[in-house]
Design a protein that fits this description.
By secondary structure, this protein is an alpha+beta fold. The chain folds into 3 domains: 2-115, Alpha-Beta Plaits (2-Layer Sandwich); 132-139 and 286-443, Orthogonal Bundle (Trigger factor, domain 2); 155-252, Roll (Chitinase A, domain 3), CATH 3.10.50. The protein has helices at 21-38, 51-81, 139-152, 201-210, 258-263, 271-305, 313-330, 332-337, 340-366, 373-384, 390-399, 401-423, 433-443, and strands at residues 2-7, 12-19, 92-94, 108-115, 131-136, 155-158, 168-178, 181-194, 218-224, 238-252, 427-432. Strands 6, 7, 8, 9 and 10 form a 5-stranded antiparallel sheet that branches. A 4-stranded antiparallel sheet has the order 1-2-4-3. Strands 5-11 form a two-stranded parallel sheet. Strand 7 (168-178) and strand 8 form a beta hairpin. It is elongated, with a radius of gyration of 33 Å.
Length: 445
């Protein structure tokens, strides 16, 4: 066998391979013998059918299968021997000129186009200056977290008095006209909101008229908007609406007592232990935000320092399919509508994700990252520690190899990025817990 490699670009290759015809014939004869041992034919005992009869009936099929196997094996063995970083799945076999007849007597020459991983030289990591968040957790942060907990576990009580701020109102409203012009098809909408706690200008104006109404009471109002609204349909216009207060409720937060605390999983039922647990969770949350921000920043700075100009198209196509599959499950209406802008956005995101993945691979190689079973299992234990049901999460992870593989890849990535962070010139800056949450909501959601 002979193989020559042509470099078409930094990430594209074309291999030309020539195989002696004997190699194909050897595989062809093996195929015939396999068929002879399996095929059933009248007049012959199992396994006793002459090969010439098998060849007459199945020769063309057997030859094509033998040839395909030899071609594939020869290519992948040749690439492996030359230590070429082939991207699995990217190979396109150019077989148009090959002869299909089983009596082919010519040596076999074929070409394969494929892609390789780009070479990334990671240098000057120590010149990077990412910032580590030092997050200060105050007593007020703990009180706010407790307020949120008792709100989540609270309940609502129906009210009969007039609506006021902080009440929860279910409002039905119908739009009659805009600037005096009747709406052809009257719009009816229903919204539930906490009065005095909405940033939507339309709802703000609606709720100002709802305050003071009794449940089931209705009212016709006119609302005029400023001409600076982003919504051009109503900007600077006057809307005529009918409002009805369908339901009025008051929120009743949960009471912090021993039973409530035990229900949250704190066996002692002690309020001090509850406060400590809340603070522990805030510290854990702050640590995760800080770590994730530092990882994102150093990867961003690495991308700037090591710009990957050519990204393998096969990897982009696979990542694009994965993103679309997720969108199909979560927001199918986006894909149904479809648009060139959406396709371009998905492709751009896929490209960015592949670039990050390639950088991580380069980091793994640079720092010779490797992990053992013990480290993997410790990581998994840490991963599920703060979940609602850690034991169930462990059972799920260990029940499917794909979850284990994901954990393995995650820890390899984390260790590689941590190694880069260790080499970088990390700066520190103090943030409040609220600033950290704002950052997380904007960048990590």
């Amino acid at each position: 066998m002979s193989i020559s490699i042509e470099n078409l670009s930094p990430i594209s290759r074309r291999a030309t391979i020539t195989l002696p015809v004997e190699q194909v014939k050897k595989q062809f004869n093996k195929k015939l013998r396999e068929l002879a041992s399996k095929v059933r034919m009248d007049g012959f005992r199992p396994g006793k059918i002459p090969l010439n009869i098998i060849e007459r009936r199945y020769g063309t099929q057997a030859f094509q299968e033998a040839r395909a196997e030899v071609i594939s094996e020869s290519f992948y063995n040749g690439i492996l021997e030359k230590k070429i970083p082939l991207i699995q799945g990217s190979a396109t076999f150019e077989l148009d000129s090959l002869i299909d007849a089983e009596n082919d007597t010519e040596d076999l020459t074929f070409a394969v186009s494929f892609e390789v991983y780009p070479q990334i030289e990671l240098e000057n990591i120590n010149s990077l200056k990412p910032t580590r968040m030092i997050i200060d957790i105050s007593d007020q942060d703990i009180d706010d977290a407790i307020s949120q907990i008792i709100k989540v576990h609270g309940s609502t009580i129906d009210l009969t008095e007039v609506a006021q701020e902080s009440n929860i109102a279910t409002i039905r409203w119908s739009l009659f006209s805009i600037d005096g012009e009747a709406i052809a098809s009257m719009q009816n909408k229903e919204n539930t909101l906490e009065l005095g706690n909405t940033k939507d200008e339309l709802l703000q104006q609606i709720q100002s008229h709802v305050i003071g109404l009794n449940p089931k009471e209705s009212k016709t109002v006119e609302i005029t908007f400023s001409d600076k609204l982003s919504n051009k349909d109503i900007s600077g216009k006057t809307l005529k609406l009918e409002l009805q207060l369908e339901k009025l409720q008051k929120f009743e937060p949960a009471e912090i007592n021993s039973d409530f605390i035990k229900k949250l999983g704190i066996v002692s039922g002690n309020k001090d232990d509850f406060n400590k647990e809340v603070k522990t969770n805030l510290v854990h949350s702050a640590k995760k935000i800080s770590e994730k921000r530092l990882e994102l920043e150093i990867m961003s700075k690495l991308s700037e320092l090591n710009n990957i100009e050519e990204v393998p198209s096969y990897l982009i196509s696979q990542e694009t399919k994965w993103i679309k599959q997720n969108l199909l499950q979560q927001q199918p209406e986006l894909l149904k509508e479809g648009s060139d802008a959406l396709d371009a956005s998905i492709k751009e995101r896929a490209t960015d994700l592949i670039k990050r993945s390639l950088l991580v691979m380069a980091l793994v190689d640079k720092y010779k990252v490797n992990i053992d079973e013990k480290t993997l299992h410790e990581y998994i234990q840490s991963y599920v520690q703060f979940m609602e049901n850690p034991q169930k999460a462990l059972e799920t992870i260990y029940s499917d190899k794909k979850y284990i593989n994901k954990m393995y890849n995650d820890i390899m990535q984390n260790l590689a990025i941590k190694a880069a962070i260790k080499d970088a010139d990390v700066q520190e800056k103090i943030y409040t817990y609220k600033e950290a949450l704002d950052y997380s909501a904007t960048n990590l959601s």
